[in-house]
Every structure is written in C-alpha cells, then in structure tokens.
C-alpha cells in the first residue's frame, strides 16, 4: 500500500502563462489568494512534502517554505521539463504532479491514483476526467509516478521530444477516471479565472 508519506507533491508553476498576459499564473489571486495557495492547501494533506517548480518569482514562491526548483532548460519547453527537475528533487518513492492553475484539484487525487498504482505493475498512473457529455479526457499533468523514472524521462527529453503523451507511451501506465470535471478546471485566461470563481464561490 502506498501511503501519504511515500509521496512528494510537485506543483507545476513554470509556464509562460501567455494566455493570461504573461504574468506569473501561480501568483494571480483566486478568491483573494494567490492561485498556488489553493494547490498547496489541496495537496498538503495528500503528500509527505511539496516541491514547487517555477521559473520566475522564485523568492516569492520560496516564502511558502518548500523547495523551489527551476527548469534546467531556459526555453519554457513544457511541463516535462518541470517533471524532470521535480524527479531530481524528489526524496520519496513516488511523485504526484499537479499544475498551479487548477485550484479545485481532487481531495482524493493521491489516494485514487495510488490505489490504481497498486493494482498492477504500473510506472505511472494519470487522471482522466469524464465531461458532462460522457467523453473521457486524459489529464496528464495530474499523475502519480515512480520516482525512479528520472532516467527514462531524461533519455526521452534528450531525444528532443517534449510531448507528455509520447513519454507516457514509453511507460507502463494506467488511468483513473474522475467523474466531476470541475475538479480539473484550469484557468488559462482572465475570463476563465472569473468564471471559475463564480462557480466555486
Ligand atoms: N516547468 C514548466 N512548466 C510548464 C511549462 N509550460 C507549461 N508548464 C506548466 O504546465 C501546466 C499546463 O500548462 P498551461 O496551462 O499551458 O500553462 P502555461 O503554459 O503557463 O500557459 P500558456 O502560456 O497560456 O499556455 C501549468 O502548470 C504550467 O505551469 C514549462 O515550460 N516549464
Ligand atoms: Mg502552455
């Protein structure tokens, strides 16, 4: 059984946030508090400790009391660059990832992904959401992986590939479908931020 103490939570706050006007998304207020505080509050009870991946505002992110790791590549090459430095900083057997811009992330994310991880010989289990129309969508930035995947990921990135789904295809993976699509709602634009505040008031 994988327990809370076996898991480090990695919050991905390293993107450019271009659709948000290029400001640092993790620090935008959501219900009056920086978005990242919602992610920290949701993840904290689910993991032993947290690591923040950011490429800007490092001093500000550091005030939350967790290690802040920057991408090793300076070109904003996507979330896998964050996974890579998160795996290097991880001191537990498992790493759970979540973006900084999904403030309603599931309270049972770690629990359900860990149960699935224990059901088979999997290396990584990612979340999927069931939308109102019944369609199932992969939510690959919400995933639980074995922390020994560092070499696999670095070899993949060295090939020049950045696509998360192509890395997953190299691994033994499974998924867990969450029925409430709202828990993965993410804010990419000021308008989406406003709408999500309204529905989660
Ligand atoms: N470490 C790292 N994380 C990234 C990078 N690009 C995106 N992410 C993270 O991946 C998650 C999903 O990315 P997006 O929703 O596209 O966020 P974004 O790239 O900041 O926003 P846009 O520039 O508008 O696409 C977010 O948590 C981002 O912080 C990157 O180059 N490096
Ligand atoms: Mg992006």
TrEMBL record:
<keyword id="KW-0479">Metal-binding</keyword>
<feature type="binding site">
    <location>
        <position position="53"/>
    </location>
    <ligand>
        <name>GTP</name>
    </ligand>
</feature>
<feature type="binding site">
    <location>
        <position position="71"/>
    </location>
    <ligand>
        <name>GTP</name>
    </ligand>
</feature>
<dbReference type="InterPro" id="IPR029044">
    <property type="entry name" value="Nucleotide-diphossugar_trans"/>
</dbReference>
<comment type="subunit">
    <text>Monomer.</text>
</comment>
<dbReference type="Pfam" id="PF12804">
    <property type="entry name" value="NTP_transf_3"/>
</dbReference>
<keyword id="KW-0501">Molybdenum cofactor biosynthesis</keyword>
<feature type="binding site">
    <location>
        <position position="101"/>
    </location>
    <ligand>
        <name>Mg(2+)</name>
    </ligand>
</feature>
<keyword id="KW-0963">Cytoplasm</keyword>
<protein>
    <recommendedName>
        <fullName>Molybdenum cofactor guanylyltransferase</fullName>
        <ecNumber>2.7.7.77</ecNumber>
    </recommendedName>
</protein>
<keyword id="KW-0808">Transferase</keyword>
<feature type="binding site">
    <location>
        <begin position="12"/>
        <end position="14"/>
    </location>
    <ligand>
        <name>GTP</name>
    </ligand>
</feature>
<dbReference type="InterPro" id="IPR025877">
    <property type="entry name" value="MobA-like_NTP_Trfase"/>
</dbReference>
<comment type="function">
    <text>Transfers a GMP moiety from GTP to Mo-molybdopterin (Mo-MPT) cofactor (Moco or molybdenum cofactor) to form Mo-molybdopterin guanine dinucleotide (Mo-MGD) cofactor.</text>
</comment>
<keyword id="KW-0460">Magnesium</keyword>
<feature type="binding site">
    <location>
        <position position="25"/>
    </location>
    <ligand>
        <name>GTP</name>
    </ligand>
</feature>
<keyword id="KW-0547">Nucleotide-binding</keyword>
<comment type="similarity">
    <text>Belongs to the MobA family.</text>
</comment>
<feature type="domain" description="MobA-like NTP transferase">
    <location>
        <begin position="9"/>
        <end position="170"/>
    </location>
</feature>
<feature type="binding site">
    <location>
        <position position="101"/>
    </location>
    <ligand>
        <name>GTP</name>
    </ligand>
</feature>
<keyword id="KW-0342">GTP-binding</keyword>
<dbReference type="GO" id="GO:0016779">
    <property type="term" value="F:nucleotidyltransferase activity"/>
</dbReference>
<keyword id="KW-0548">Nucleotidyltransferase</keyword>
<dbReference type="InterPro" id="IPR013482">
    <property type="entry name" value="Molybde_CF_guanTrfase"/>
</dbReference>
